[in-house]
Amino acid sequence: MQLSPADPDDSLPNALREVPYMGVIHVVAEAVKLGFYNGHPDWCNLGQGQPEVGEMAGAPGRILSVELEPGDAAYGPLEGTCELREAVAAHYNRLYRQGKSSQYSAANVAIASGGRLALTRAAAALGPIEVGYQLPDYTAYEDLFNTHLARLSPVALRGEIERGFRVPAEVLERSARDLGLGAFLFSNPCNPTGALVQGEELKRYVALSRKTGMALLADEFYSHFIYSQASDGTWIPGDGPVSAAGFVEDVESDPVMLFDGLTKNYRYPGWRIGWVVGPSSMVETCARTGSAIDGGPSRVAQRAALGVLEPERADQETNALREVFCAKRNLMVARLKAMGIRLATEPEGTFYCWGSLEHLKEPFQNAQRFFRLALERHVMTVPGEYFDVNPGKRRFGESPYASWMRFSFGPPMENLTLGLDRLEEMLGT
Asked: Going from the N-terminus, what domains does the chain have, and what CATH number goes with each?
């Protein structure tokens, strides 16, 4: 079983394909059947893919207004406004390119209405190539590939549990050589596992891209949710974000494309502001696909985004984010372990724990049954098989992630604690 789509609709006209809900969207759809709605006081969404979006300790106040201008009623540029593109380029140079001769400019940035749309534009711009991707990974990649199967050939590189489900640089290098990969798409830190490719390993990824011409498509939407282990073994907030941008030698020739936005790292998912950063020729090509896909991002949201990226404000937000989310991370890791849920790797990034249920008593070893029983207690979780990205359903048999579950510590601490209490009660631990 790969995905659990909504009940098939036999009334669909023959012209339409059946489109399943993907991952957490399916979880929400099933919860709605039991009375869930956003903000319901008696539901705990430990499956949610967005961080808490309200006021947060240590963070600047939320931006609650933006002034409209007459020109906002018109279409904006496909690649985004020059002002925001310049701000994003300066943001990357400040965080990752200090002291380097090659710097990003507005020409290296394109804005899109959200991260999935930025990735959709990039997929539409790819030529007829073999595209590698890691497993497990972000559920939306499946339909992203499905839309282009006539042109793209997706190649799965399955991470091993012993390595925390990471794809080691040597495996990527061998696969690029033996399988002729023209591109490699991966989320880093990884959704759902929380594993992080960083340091020398990430440097090798970028060097491989530079050497072979393989486009490195780095989905870095959780790049500021970084945690590190102190000398005494405790987990603390990381020193700062992690991005492949720090290992790019020449921003115009290294075929590295970075995807990020305000969705996760700045806690404004509803603004739908994402971007791609990379060589200007690649970025321009991605922007051109927007003429047929979406028509360009909102001018209003882009103007509001300028305030979010003001250096002092941006750093205050992300420093607070690591402090608050590290505390929630540590709570969830400890509580899940006490329940008997095993983690392949303790999360180094994101706001997810990727846990195995295989050592729990029946009927909780199966993620689908666990999911259904937790819903009865008004707790939402995401079965692991949803992250077994399988374009075209070409792989058969039961997913190796049938006993894995993604748990989110995205909600506020009080709600997170309530959800964990309910799971503990359910499991009788």
From this structure: 24-58+318-427 (3.90.1150.10), 70-314 (3.40.640.10)
